[in-house]
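Translate sequence into structure tokens.
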Amino acid sequence: MFSFIIVLKKFIILFIFAILLISCSSKQDIDSFKYDSNLILDGVVSSLPKLDNGDIEFVFHTEKYGDFLLKVNQNAIHYIVPANRLELEAKLYDIHEYKNVGAFNYNEYLDNRNITTIGFVDTKAEILYKGTSVWYLPERLRFSLYNYLNNQLGGYSQKPLVLALLIGDKDFSPELSRLFQNTGTSHLVVISGLHIGLLALVAFVIFRILWSLSPRLCRAIPAQYVAVVLSLISAFAYSLLAGFTVPTQRAVIMLMVFSIFWLMSKRISIVRSIIYAFILVMIIDYKSIFGAGTWLSFSAVIFLIFISAIVSQYKSKFTKMILAQIVLSIFLIPITIYYFNGFSAVSISANIIAIPFVSFIIVPILFLSLILSFIGIKLWFLVNFLIQILLSYLDLLNGEFSFVTYSANFSIWSLLLVLLGLGILFLPIAKSFRLLGLALVMIIFQPVVNLTDKYDILKIHVFDIKDLMVIIQNDGIDTLYISSNVDDYSLQTVLQPYLRLEGIKQLSYVVVTGGAFNADVLKFIVPVDKIVSKNDGDLACEYSNSWTIKNDTFNLIPYADNCILNIKNEYKDILIISAKSSVQKKIYSLYGLTINADMVITSDYLNIDFVEKLKVKYLIYSSSNSVKSDYLDQLRPIAVKVVDTHNNGAITISVLSNGHFVIKSLLKNY
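Result follows.
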């Protein structure tokens, strides 16, 4: 028996050493001249292939450069199998990252996933198959299981949820994702400690029974020791099949720590096991520390430990379970606010029913259905029915006010202080200390202040996106000027964070230029009072519909599908326009006597004659490309200062009470 433990120790040490070796792999930087041109890559398909807008998307691992997120035409799908070693030719792209305040950073997102860049495989060049990589065989097995489940489930409506719960493949519709977010139940479809623990328990029981059938084997090594080791191996294998995400890593490592100490007849506290798990997760992938999943996973376990001590005074197990769920939901509110800018108002009601229903009914039947399917017995109809019951219950709770959007700026310090306050509030200590905890919790109710109410200035913010989007803030009345080409993604990841940071709770006017615009997503993000448009809106883009805020007049200038905005400040005139050069001449011929512009904000190159006639001093150019050098040469003789978003990021212009412009960007001040 003693020799068995020694062998096990050596195996664990070698296992950890292998993880360290893999996690410390190095890669070279790609030379800038290699972007936007074809490059021959030698590597391995390391992820499940996914269908994206008609193309196949997959992660391609190379020893030299690291991982690439590539797309390929569906004609080459037979090559894109996990663990396949390939030599292929791909065009790589150097991603231009738009720079906006508090916005989602795609480059940072890729970097946290250890992806070097994106690219497209050239199918005209030959793709060479060079064998199979042993290291990625678990992903190959996961792919086989994915295809098997797809065939088994056929046309069942809840197939995406079954795939998520069994192999961690989350490919939900936006409506389903929003349902889980609004009800605070997103954690239910993440493979975590529940799945790992259940599988380990089943494996332990099975292996112990099988080993106990042989008295000779039991005399050599006790059945419980063999069952623990084999259940641990089973749990680790399943975590690989589930994608080895942070929640599965945490669960497997904690299980491994407990198992090792149990085999050594020693005890270890759950706190120490969490610390060991966190350290090993960071060793495996230190960039996971930037992910919301890491903190939600570990914090939930820590909160449960704290909560278990609080509810231990109650005798009823049912009371303990209900109170633990309520308190845990309260503790997770500030974390979800910090990461997701809001929280579910119905999460307690949803989770009290959903957690035991998923844990003790759906997940066990899922595993049973999978096992029985291999011998021809199909119970998928039962799984589909049970998941439909769950979704019906969540739909019942989901409503207009189920998710509370948090509009104020909630910093990391606010998060830590609120969590500290909650901890003090729930501890069985003196009331005076609990009042201190309550005061700290009240930080979460900080008022939303529109910053332009505090400062007597006209403030204009030009967003750094592909198309023109500008917000004008004046005495708490906010106007959005937007091209009809601006997509929903920009509204959600660029505009929404800015509105929250600035304390903007409503847009008084939205001026749309360039044709029809679907404002549904915009109205979901922020209430809108009036939409001004040439086509359909609350106000027609006509000069007669212009408005005044304090001493500033907002003149509307219509032409074809274009709606131009001319702001006449007490000291300065600003023109916001998105129109081609040929259109600009016609606009000036019609409105030349009424248009003035010390500054022009545009996404198009201005006609030089147009610039000269308006006597423009500043040109703010919003585009995904730099201003062409020959165009700058034409502007230089007429002394126009040019600032572009491509090189400077989002730009903020303030018109001070003395009439001076103050121009700032994320990278420079002017």
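Note: The chain has four domains: 32-132, 142-405, 412-445, 451-665.
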